[in-house]
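re: the backbone from monday

yeah here it is again, tokenized this time
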């Protein structure tokens, strides 16, 4: 009986999470929400199954149906991401990174990356994936503002130091890295240029950011659930020769995973078709919302970073809250008021401030997907101001506000709603689902 009580406790916690997160304003920059249609397909029989290898060349029987799904999604994502090769098997962005790094970085190779306070992802550093292969990791020189790679200084550095691999892309990601400017230098010096587009895959595919592969990156890795609004997985894309790609193929399987979690692959397929239909208008709204939120926060007295560059070219903005208690305190207070985001090192922070950095990082992609626009960004800025600057409890206001934004837009759920809007007997999402 004791175990039944434990099971019930787990079920209650999951139920509480489902209800609570539907009542919050989620501004975590690395997350997003899937449509009901994509989410509900998870938990199918595929969640029990294995399918090592490639469609049509598996090591198991019983894979005919996943073969068709995987082959279809690869074909459509190749045209969406405009690439010759794609691997959809990595089960996360970090696994995608590891699949590639394990093939391109040899012991003692010199690798150049974005520093931690410059926004670099943990997998690019000594305690993450890169650190498994080499300890020779150097940082890109940054311009004075801290949000851009200094191209001239980087070229000087590359002239002096025999770098083998360049890793661009980052987690605090306000502006894209300069692929077009540095790719010719990499080609001349034989440096492999890997672009980690985990945060911005949806903005690249949505055509609001330049395409790093088109600009000369040799490989693009990404996760599929940040600005791209799929299930939690990873992808690797490239236009390299078949023989170079064969190395990466082995990096994905068997070097970094065996089975590749087929139930989330099926959900990714649904989300990808939603992206193919709606991705460009979604991506445009994400950028408008990020800039609108930056301006609204600035107007209310927050120190929003990178004002001189119009704040951002992505889904993210960064705010210096060092005079408001620091990133740790501000993010906790907001959490207690149902606004969820994370503390973040800012480029000029020393590394020992990692547990209470100067900044908070804000991403607008999930709230955009729930149908919010510039007007709603202004309301969010006002809630944040009253909470952090005036010390008011605004948690219940957040719950009331969020009640109006429950349908995932840029999705087939929303298309269906539009289609039946006003039809007799259909008033709520449940009515629609029942009648569908
Ligand atoms: N650490 C995550 C982020 O929030 O950017 C990505 O893995």
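seq for it, each position gets an aa:
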């Amino acid at each position: 009986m004791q175990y039944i009580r434990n099971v019930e406790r787990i079920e209650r916690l999951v139920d509480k999470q489902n209800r609570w997160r539907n009542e919050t304003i989620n501004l975590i920059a690395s997350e997003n929400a899937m449509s009901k249609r994509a989410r509900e397909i998870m938990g199918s029989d595929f969640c029990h199954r294995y399918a090592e290898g490639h469609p049509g060349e598996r090591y198991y029987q019983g894979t005919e149906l996943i073969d068709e799904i995987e082959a279809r999604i690869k074909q459509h994502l190749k045209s969406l991401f405009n690439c010759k090769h794609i691997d959809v098997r990595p089960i996360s962005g970090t696994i995608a990174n590891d699949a590639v790094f394990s093939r391109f970085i040899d012991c003692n190779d010199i690798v150049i990356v974005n520093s931690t306070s410059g926004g670099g992802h943990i997998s690019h550093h000594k305690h993450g994936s890169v650190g498994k292969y080499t300890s020779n990791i150097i940082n890109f020189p940054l311009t004075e503002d801290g949000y851009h790679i200094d191209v001239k200084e980087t070229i000087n550095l590359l002239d002096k130091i025999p770098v083998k691999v360049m890793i661009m892309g980052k987690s605090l990601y306000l502006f894209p890295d300069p692929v077009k400017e540095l790719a010719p230098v990499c080609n001349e010096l034989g440096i492999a240029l890997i672009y980690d587009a985990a945060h911005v895959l949806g903005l690249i595919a949505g055509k609001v950011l330049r395409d790093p592969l088109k600009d000369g990156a040799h490989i693009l890795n990404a996760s599929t659930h940040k600005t791209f609004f799929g299930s939690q997985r990873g992808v690797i894309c490239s236009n390299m020769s078949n023989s170079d790609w064969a190395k990466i193929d082995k990096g994905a399987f068997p070097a970094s995973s065996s089975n590749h979690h087929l139930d989330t692959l099926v959900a990714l397929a649904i989300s990808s078709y939603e992206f193919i239909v709606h991705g460009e208008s979604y991506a445009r709204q994400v950028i408008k919302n990020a800039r609108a939120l930056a301006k609204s926060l600035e107007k209310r007295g927050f120190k929003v970073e990178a004002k001189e560059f119009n704040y951002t070219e992505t889904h993210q903005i960064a705010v210096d809250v060092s005079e408001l208690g620091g990133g740790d305190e501000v993010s906790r207070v907001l959490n207690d008021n149902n606004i969820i985001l994370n503390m973040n090192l800012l480029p000029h922070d020393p590394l020992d401030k990692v547990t209470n950095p100067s900044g908070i990082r804000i991403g607008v992609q999930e709230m955009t997907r729930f149908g919010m626009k510039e007007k709603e960004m202004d309301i969010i800025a006002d809630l944040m101001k009253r909470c952090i600057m005036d010390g008011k409890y605004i948690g219940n206001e957040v719950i009331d506000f969020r009640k109006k934004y429950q349908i995932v837009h840029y999705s087939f759920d929303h298309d269906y709603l539009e289609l039946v809007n006003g039809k007799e007997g259909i008033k709520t999402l449940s009515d629609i689902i029942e009648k569908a």
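Residues 39-271 form a domain with the Aspartate Aminotransferase; domain 2 fold (CATH 3.40.640.10). Residues 30, 121, 171 surround D-serine (CB under 6 Å).
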